[in-house]
Amino acid sequence: MSIRHFIQFADLSGAEIRTLLARATELKQRRAAGDRPRLFEHKVLTMIFEKSSTRTRVSFETAMIEGGGGAIFLSPRDSQLGRGEPVEDTARVLSQMCDAIMVRTFAHDIVERLAQFASVPVINGLTDRFHPCQVLADMQTYFEHRGDIAGRKVAWVGDGNNMCNTYIEAAALLDFELVVAVPAGFEPSALPAASSAQGHVTLTEDPMEAVQGADLVVTDVWVSMGQEEDAARRRQVMAPFQVNSALLARAAPRALFMHCLPAHRGEEVAAEVLELPHSVVWEEAGNRLHAQKALLEFLLQSGR
Ligand code: CP
Ligand code: NVA
Fold first, then answer.
1. Which one of 87, 111, 113, 144 has the largest count of C-beta atoms within 10 Å of its C-beta?
2. CA proximity to 204, closest of 160, 242, 248
């Protein structure tokens, strides 16, 4: 079997994702009962972070430690990457020493080049284009609360960013309807390329229309990491796209609300929404641990 990577959601099939989500839930339940299986004994994950992180770093590191392995944190500041060592060289060196590589960076092609030259699985911990690990945890959270998401309506509201692009891939793979409400000029870049998403995804500039009858409402920050210089314009243009109680009232009565966090209260989400019964944001964050354990287990079995 050849090495598998998780660089974008579509690197897995719909069937593989469903199997992985079931395994994540099983691992979560076992952990709650005090059972932490040693899934990663003597395994090492190297984690390269070119952007800040709380959830991604702690969940991957905890996953490896609980599974009997270890994780190494590298930043450009204290590795040779920051002094210009090519990612292709880094990939070949790290592959000799560790069992998997996770990377959070800016340009998506950095992760693609890393995977091309690595001989161990490479995981995208967020790029400007995609954030697949987060959407795994989101899907786990939806499945746990409401069962399979196939045939359901999901509303994405706000910026057509890396999370939105990943939801576009997820819609096609898991067969749900995605309505994306973003201002003109902030459309998700994945949409034209994702031909299999056609039929699953529609675009609108009207958040009310998107949320109408939705089973899941999702938003994310208006200013992603690396976009700080454009912050003022983004906040102004996206102001009508805030998820607040009035907007959520349009959704289906049992709708769930998700946000990958960190949240900016008063911007993309009104403070009260995070505390509503609709909101599953804390569990969504916690599920990063379980979803990533299942992902690491799956990827580490590849190439054997
Ligand atoms: N949601 C998410 O990826 O959070 P961090 O930036 O804290 O890792
Ligand atoms: N879209 C956000 C997600 C943070 C987890 C960003 O890229 O900064």
1. 111
2. 160
Q: Which atom of ligand 2 is nearest to the CA of 261?
A: 5
The protein residue whose alpha carbon is closest to atom 6 in ligand 2 is: 224
Q: Looking at the structure, do residues 103 and 150 belong to the same domain, yes or no?
A: no
Same domain assignment for residues 121 and 148 = no
Instruction: Tell me which residues have their CB closer than 6 angstroms to ligand 2.
Output: 126, 131, 161-163, 220-221, 224-225, 260
Domain that holds residue 181: 134-284
Say whether both 40 and 115 belong to one domain: yes
Q: What is the CATH number of the domain that holds 90?
A: 3.40.50.1370
Q: Pocket of ligand 2, candidates 161, 166, 182, 186: which has the most ligand atoms within 8 Å of its Cβ, to mutate?
A: 161
Count up the domains in the chain and report the number.
2
Question: Annotated catalytic sites, by residue?
Answer: 104, 131, 134, 220, 260, 288
- Contacts of residue 128, Cβ cutoff 8 Å, sequence gap at least 6: 106, 107, 108, 162, 224, 226
Instruction: Indicate whether 3 belongs to any domain.
Output: no
The pTM score is 0.97
Atom of ligand 1 nearest to the CA of 260: 1
**Do 267 and 191 belong to one domain?**
yes
- Is 2 a member of any domain? no
pLDDT, residue 304, reads: 67
Of ligand 1's listed atoms, the one at least distance from the Cα of 51 is 6
Question: Does residue 1 form part of some domain?
Answer: no
The bridge status of strand 100-104 relative to strand 256-259 is unpaired
Locate 195 and state its tokens. Answer: 């031909």
Question: What residue owns the CA closest to ligand 2's atom 2?
Answer: 224
- Concatenate the DSSP letters of all residues of 121-165 into one string: -EEES--SS--HHHHHHHHHHHHHHHS--TT-EEEEES---HHHH
pLDDT tens digit sequence for 89-115: 999 999 999 999 999 999 999 999 999
